[in-house]
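Morning run. Coffee first, then this:
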Amino acid sequence: MLDDLINERLKKLEKYRKLGNPYPASVRRDFLIAEVLEKFSELEESEKNISIVGRLMSWRDQGKIIFADLKDGSGKIQVVFNANELKNFDFLNETLDTGDFIQVAGSAFKTKKGEKSVLIKSAEMISKSMRPWPSTWFGIEDVEKKLRERYLDLLLNDEVRDLFIKKSRFWDVVRSSLVKEDFLETETPVLESLPGGAEAEPFKTHHNALNTDFYLRISLELPLKKLLVGGYEKVFEIGRIFRNEGIDKEHLQDYTQMECYWAYADYKDMMALTQKIYKKAVKEIFGELKTKSGEHVIDWDTKWPLVDYYEVFKKETGIDLKNATKEELHKKAHELNLDPESFLGRGRLIDLIYKKSVRPKLIQPCFLVDPPVDIEPLAKRTEYDSNRVERFQIVAAGTELGKGFSELNDPIDQRKRFEEQTKLKEAGDREAQNLDEDFLQALECGMPPAAGFGMSERFFSVLMDKPVRECVIFPLMKPNLPAGGQNNKNVKH
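And here it is:
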């Protein structure tokens, strides 16, 4: 059936080729469609002949008159083909299809129903659509299909198109806010000889020219900290990172992350800055400071409270982290059906229990502060308790939306923590951090006191109240190949 439809369009294409070029290199465009609609009264009164371009979105044949919708990146307008106005009316009717790109010239007018339209005086094809669109697209509930054929989703669903316009504005706000605060935007390597800066399993690749294995970065952190050693005081990067872990509502294997580092500041300074940036981003996208997340209304327009990690953990689990043993935590994880592996350390167990029992309860924006040192090997210890670190997480809608801390700049303490991570890795924890001698050497040269912060596009997906994968324009997906592994070629040559 699809082959028949494609072959029918191929015949129309060949018919058009006999009289013209269906794929010209240049076109004439006097106005965007949005400009035509904005200046419609003026154009209608002048009866000026205007040229516009776009894609045919619909085709309503009324015999000697055809009504069609033409759409470009700025908007949509009705165009009218009239046999009395067009010498090649029949030819166009026989060769054009929905999905084709066309250039039309004509005058602005209103139909009897008052709809703003363009009466076509001439028209030509500028790109043929060889594959018909599914007529039942809006009834498709298969999210996988919509993500796989995202180009159709963008074309046929204005809400999806608008989502990615908002996402662009979101990152623009983040970037411009940091630049305004005198942060320098930088670029650091995607390929690393040793992955670090986060607890995650990396992707591995081979560099042919160097005949060496490298890893795709799992974080931006360590290279940016080296820039603080090098004398820069405020740096940030917005870039892709890669983590070879599971897919769910909040996690992807490759995604965009922003990390910034600020010399001579601590985590309290960073909390003030990030709250300002987050509120600005929400306001810019929604025009207000309230958003929806499931059944909840999230109010960003408050002074976000500090929530003590130990206190809220004890409240929700009954466990006092001041003296909780690994055995006690392991038992609790089993009670929660988390199936903890035997080699997991105290920090990983605490984090597992927290994510199951505590985080879902934190709905309104807050700063979750001062967790155990076991779960954050790169943060500075608090002055009042050496077993806790100066770290904050921005939590809202029951999930983490960003993390920052006073950076550990003591190379001796950092080495000890890396060594503890090495023991966990040797015991079987593939996500434990590596002992990075190159980074330790940089720290030994001296890094100033500093605060760091990282956020991913998860924040944007929460604002949009959608799974993160639906907020990625072309998410990575398993190849959809037919038996034999060859691409299906419907177009016959």
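The longest strand covers residues 50-61. Good start to the day.
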